[in-house]
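Re-running DinB family protein to confirm reproducibility after the cluster update. Everything else is unchanged from the original entry.
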Amino acid sequence: MTPGELANYRDYLDHYREALERKCADLSPEQLATRSVPPSSMSLLGLVRHLARVEHFWFQRALVEVEADRIYDDGDAGFAVVEPTQEAADEAWAAWREQVAISNAWLDQQTDDTLGNVVTFRNGTETGSGRDILVHMIEEYARHCGHADLLRECIDGVTGE
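Result of re-run:
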């Protein structure tokens, strides 16, 4: 691990982002879109879409205050059943990678000292800091990588860390 608070958070976040990719590796679009346990709409592809949405919300809408509609605003936080097509899988991964790149660009501008800067979120009633959001993102990815591990095991028996 790299020393420093920001570097430590980034290491954890990168670890979980990479874990998500590993848990989805070498699966067909049909496998990626396989739902967990009805009535849940959770699938690996839904997790990719959801995490793109989460990256977009916290790093762009909350921290940078970009005026943009939420991505995957499907009433199910991106988990809604998606078509098991290569096009749907490619689109979800492209959206996720784009959001990760934008988030990383924001992180590249931060230092240990700026992580504590408090921002007021778009709704005007909530505040938080870059530190709060990074900890939340690590927690979000950790939880969903656990889901991804269970989904993958159901699909083909592969388990991960």
